[in-house]
Amino acid sequence: MGAATLHQLARRGVKVAGIDRYSPPHDLGSSHGATRITRQAVGEGTAYVPLALRSHELWRELEAERGVKLFEQCGVLIMTASATTTSHHGRPDFTRATLELAQRYGIPHEAWDGPGIRRRFPQFQVEDDALGYFEPGGGYLYPEACIQAQLNGARERGAQVFTGTTIEQVVQDGQGVLLRSAQDTWRAERVIAAAGMWSAELLGAPFTDLLRVCRQTLHWFELAEPARFPADSPCFILAHGSGDSDLFYGFPPLPGEHSVKVATEQYFNNTTPIKIDRSLHPDESSRLFSNQVERWVGGLSPRAVRSAVCAYTVTPDFGFIVDEHPTLPGVTVVSACSGHGFKHSAALGEALAQRVVEGRSAIDLSAFALKRFD
Predict the structure, then answer these.
(1) Residue 327: which domain range?
(2) pLDDT tens for residues 130-173?
């Protein structure tokens, strides 16, 4: 969110600085891991669809501008593995909700039953009463490359970027917003805080009560039967139970790699940015494979050739927060994104830049306001 907003503000000629405690793109937040799914019909709710559609346009514009590959349009397959009603990001019957939004917005798609899914993509071992939603316009983004392209574009347009700099205090003194770090102090007319899992400690109430950090893991399982994965294999989300953690998602094998990236989500164990366990434990890979992947996806070996740790910063309703800080005039908060934000970041960056320059955004962001938690 920060890189996208910095890029869009710089494009509009705003005098802007980006400040980060690390050196993005990095692997210490929520925007890494080589690939991120992007989809147009977003089952989390109607408010997200315009952001997804606009982001796809912006990713293509950025690719053309920078001469880099950012978006692979391989399609996305969202499935319920059986007739069991499933939940994802707090939305019941997520697959059917996605299908209904695609119909409402005229997004090209296909709907399949279990035999249809297995015929088209034989790696998926779903039951006959499964429901599948296939969106050919979806695919995956290269998050590190997206962030780097936006930062490079912002710098070339005059934006300053300060890395290795931790903001320790944000205060409003009547003349603007003061940002203090151990190294320096900045005064700004407006501040946009896209601090991810550091948002609560940086911004205080009400974010200390609304946000929780959940450690997640990503795993790359070795291909045992490459023939089970056609060349046009899609990204996928496969739900198989009624809980938000009863699912896993994955990607097609990337060119030159002999593995498939798969991950699940957990919302039971909370952590903090300081205490998050960044160690990789082999039993986490084996549990994911034996408890979920092995039953529903064929052609993979239980051997994980790589793993990684990331974090979701989650709100009570799994939605975004994009709003003005209630006690710090001049500070706009864009976070947390509850584990499904990266695909929308290009359009959110544009919308926030429009707010700063024009006073309003072309896309309605009212669904992400803080007042819904009152």
Answers:
(1) 2-30+143-211+317-359
(2) 999 999 999 999 999 999 999 999 999 999 999 999 999 999 98
